[in-house]
Amino acid sequence: MNFRYLPMTEEDQKEMLQFLGISSVDELFADIPDEIKLNRRLQIPEALSEPEAVKYFSRLAKKNVNSDDYIYFLGAGIYDHYIPSTVNHVISRSEFYTAYTPYQPEISQGELQAIFEFQTMICELTGMDAANSSMYDGPTALAEAANLACGVTRKKKVVISKAVHPQSRAILQVNANGQGYDVVEVDIKNGLTDLEALDQAVDQDTAAVIVQYPNFLGSIEDLAAIEKIAHKHKGLFVVSSNPLSLGVLKPPGEFAADIVVGEAQPFGIPMQFGGPSCGYFAVRNKYMRKIPGRIVGQTTDEDGKRGFVLTLQAREQHIRREKATSNICSNQALNALAASVAMTALGKRGVQEVAIQNIQKAHYAKQAINQLEGYEVVFDAPTFNEFVIKAPKPVSEINSALLKRGIVGGYDLGRDYKELSQHILLAVTEARTKEEIDLLVQGLGEI
Amino acid sequence: MIKQKEKALIFEMSRPGRAAYDLPDCDVPETKLEELIPSHLIRQTPAELPEVSELDLMRHYTELSNRNHGIDSGFYPLGSCTMKYNPKINEDVARYPGFAKIHPYQSEETVQGALEVLYNLQTELAEITGMDEVTLQPAAGAQGEWSALMMIRAYHESRGENRTKVIVPDSAHGTNPASAAVAGLDTITIPSDEHGLVDVEELKKAVGPDTAALMLTNPNTLGLFEEHIVEIAKVVHEAGGLLYYDGANANAILGITRPGDMGFDVVHLNLHKTFTGPHGGGGPGAGPVGVKKILAPFLPRPQVVKVGDHFKLNHDIPQSIGRVKAFFGNFGILLRAFVYIRSNGPDGLLKVSQDAVLNANYMMRKLQPYFDLPYDRVCKHEFVLSGRRQKKLGVRTLDIAKRLLDFGFHPPTIYFPLIVEECMMIEPTETESKETLDAFINTMIQIAKEAEESPEIVLEAPHDTVVSRLDEVSAARKPILRYTPNHEASANPSNKETVKA
């Protein structure tokens, strides 16, 4: 057995021990009290050689149904999209993936510039002034937005629509418990945030109003109407948005949103069981110095040449410690890079074309399923690439039957919404062909 | 490798009409966009994303990569970050379709392989840390800290106790007090003693009926093992508090000692550090949290469990603090760490820590004659030097760090921990050969000599990088956080394009 990651030879070890004037490595651990030493081998499986590991993990991987072999109509926050081949080639360059946070800008200009470009692309898509280098994921970015809003307004209530992703709301609740603010959830009406209920929920104590665009049920919220309510009592207007949809939808920045967050997974990031993905966080200039996480800024070197550095670090935990705006230290740099490459590959026209194909294909599927007996499209709100259907049977039964036909069906909304049992959230992206959609429709019809 | 001084931004390379993607034509009957989306919700001004060809794209990012230093580029002794080699098989496995192309909401029976990975990783990390249960949800060390503190809070609250104070030593990572604040807890900082260790007498004064927890890194950020840990644990436990282990430095103890055996109740690990994540230029990481039985009722939902031969998700954790991260945490990183653990086995992991500690001690003693060594005792996987001797000559630690760049080395962590003047925190890791260590040692000795004989060489460094020292003050004072095109061309509104269906 070779430990191929460990270069120290017996000869090396001998020389080093000799230099240190000791006879055994154990002497270097003499400061650890005997009573807490393990003094036995770790009870974990024996080492696998590289070929054995390849076999073992290939076998495990094959136990999972995956989108190479099955047709996916499952979304609900993570989507099966076209990923240009360039993405994997760029993020496989080890100068990127084996580096850490660019603390030494002179030898990290590549990473810093890539992040600066990412920040710019996020600003362009969302219509906002400034963005950070990325967040753990969309839901944690949303919670950080609420934390920020409570911090700057010094108010203790956050109003969030029930049409926001259930996991985002769950994570928000834990944050609220930690920081000591209240979360008020607003009901849904016809697939959209109930504006009357929202209006009633928002008051002087409201730090933020949070909605999702398109929302968790696939419907496109009317941000113009919501903005009026959100700003009525000087709270912040926070929008969580699928950035791909912003190829076609008017960006939240044009609706006077104060903070826009979301999940960049639709751009170049594989589903990989939900993570790692890439949250983004964008604000109006006014809140630039309150953003959590790392931010890259442009500057000049001693010769006046353009260069990039981590900036506004006075906000951060390693400087401010207990007074920091957030405890966030790492970001999702490699996934932000993947997203940047995908956004670059698509470019100005591609992001529109992909977004439009999502709308068209989802619309085609929606119309076709609506004509099936027993199925019904329940909301008439406009949609992007997801929509809700009412099914004649329990969702688990339908999905089991679809799986036998090589199809991974939609999300069972009854898991989160009592009133939506036997309702399915279906996602139809540009990656689905007409033939595949027709197979789904046929399958649903025959179940 | 050609390194231009200034590299064009991707936006500056953009030319209308170029593209680096190719989609099939839309094959479903199309409906006019205006019939599907209300006009006031349709975008009128397209996002100015770059328009480049595929080769332009590859050259751009290849050039950027050439302006970046990774572990594969050269030695990276960044203390507390454990910049060890990132095995390539980890990257391959993470890209298998059965792992990369699976959806988190698939039914349990269609992802048994993925759940098996998670379950086994939970189990093996519990053994490695000496804990009873492990959650894999936290996305990074800082999120692990926060999750653990929320569990500690819930534990005390469940016992009807109001404990709000978290004690941290002054050598602690900045995330510790920041995480405490985000968890709604207050921080008490206690000074280290003259040996760089927790001052047990100060700790005794700080603990009380309001103590929620002590957060400790062991070995600490000075690279020193807290040899009074058993007594420390007793002091905290007797006061009714819990012990939190910051696992950033776990690379020193694998198979040698375990936080659970030291008396810790909860531990987070940074899988991107000790378990070869990789670091990704700043993330994604993964920060699993292990707990003793007393904290298990408060673990985030869901946990992966094994029922017979079947792996399932258990959402039924009534006292759970809730959910801290979407889905199952950073699965792709968890998977890489699991491949690493399986590739090493018990003997490999033990040798990892032995070699890491031997390398660090070797370097420390080789450099000791040339730099101040504030804590002269055996170190673990890392050690700190002080540049105060060089500072008297007008050369600061920052200058030494910049001079190292000229030799192709990434500098150590500098100015941390805060309690050491002109601090350099050096962590060689176990994956570096003796020749690399010697080359770095010789370079440091050379720089020490330069500081005495020709300090301007050090003060003007780096000499050989694509940019020289950057103006960080202006960057923070007048922040430019995004590219803004020259507006002359687009000032005329009639040039504005609209989104077409």
UniProtKB/TrEMBL annotation, chain A:
Keyword Signal: no
Keyword Cell wall biogenesis/degradation (UniProt): no
Keyword set, alphabetical order: Oxidoreductase
Assembly, per entry: The glycine cleavage system is composed of four proteins: P, T, L and H. In this organism, the P 'protein' is a heterodimer of two subunits.
Protein task: The glycine cleavage system catalyzes the degradation of glycine. The P protein binds the alpha-amino group of glycine through its pyridoxal phosphate cofactor; CO(2) is released and the remaining methylamine moiety is then transferred to the lipoamide cofactor of the H protein.
A Pfam family recorded for this sequence: GDC-P
Organism of origin: Thermoflavimicrobium daqui
Protein EC: 1.4.4.2
Name of the protein described by the UniProt record: Probable glycine dehydrogenase (decarboxylating) subunit 1
Residue ranges constituting the Glycine cleavage system P-protein N-terminal domain according to the UniProt record: 4-442
Catalytic reactions on record: N(6)-[(R)-lipoyl]-L-lysyl-[glycine-cleavage complex H protein] + glycine + H(+) = N(6)-[(R)-S(8)-aminomethyldihydrolipoyl]-L-lysyl-[glycine-cleavage complex H protein] + CO2
Family named by the database record: Belongs to the GcvP family. N-terminal subunit subfamily.
Gene Ontology molecular-function annotations: glycine dehydrogenase (decarboxylating) activity
The organism's taxonomic lineage, starting at the top: Bacteria, Bacillati, Bacillota, Bacilli, Bacillales
A Gene Ontology biological process term: nucleoside metabolic process
Top EC group: oxidoreductase
UniProtKB/TrEMBL annotation, chain B:
CDD domains cross-referenced by the UniProt entry: GDC-P (cd00613)
Recorded catalytic activity of this chain's protein: N(6)-[(R)-lipoyl]-L-lysyl-[glycine-cleavage complex H protein] + glycine + H(+) = N(6)-[(R)-S(8)-aminomethyldihydrolipoyl]-L-lysyl-[glycine-cleavage complex H protein] + CO2
Domain Glycine dehydrogenase C-terminal: from-to ranges: 353-454
Essential cofactor(s): pyridoxal 5'-phosphate
Region forming the signal peptide: none
Annotated EC: 1.4.4.2
GO biological process: glycine decarboxylation via glycine cleavage system
Domain Glycine cleavage system P-protein N-terminal as annotated: residue spans: 34-296
GO MF term list: glycine binding; glycine dehydrogenase (decarboxylating) activity; pyridoxal phosphate binding
Keyword presence, Oxidoreductase: yes
Cross-referenced InterPro entries: GcvPB, GDC-P_C, GDC-P_N, GDC_P, PyrdxlP-dep_Trfase, PyrdxlP-dep_Trfase_major, PyrdxlP-dep_Trfase_small
Sequence positions bearing N6-(pyridoxal phosphate)lysine: K273
The protein's enzyme class: oxidoreductase
GO cellular component: cytosol; glycine cleavage complex
One Pfam family from the record: GDC-P
Keyword entries, A-Z: Oxidoreductase, Pyridoxal phosphate
Family: Belongs to the GcvP family. C-terminal subunit subfamily.
Described function: The glycine cleavage system catalyzes the degradation of glycine. The P protein binds the alpha-amino group of glycine through its pyridoxal phosphate cofactor; CO(2) is released and the remaining methylamine moiety is then transferred to the lipoamide cofactor of the H protein.
Quaternary assembly: The glycine cleavage system is composed of four proteins: P, T, L and H. In this organism, the P 'protein' is a heterodimer of two subunits.
Name of the protein in question: Probable glycine dehydrogenase (decarboxylating) subunit 2
Organism lineage: Bacteria, Bacillati, Bacillota, Bacilli, Bacillales
Gene: gcvPB
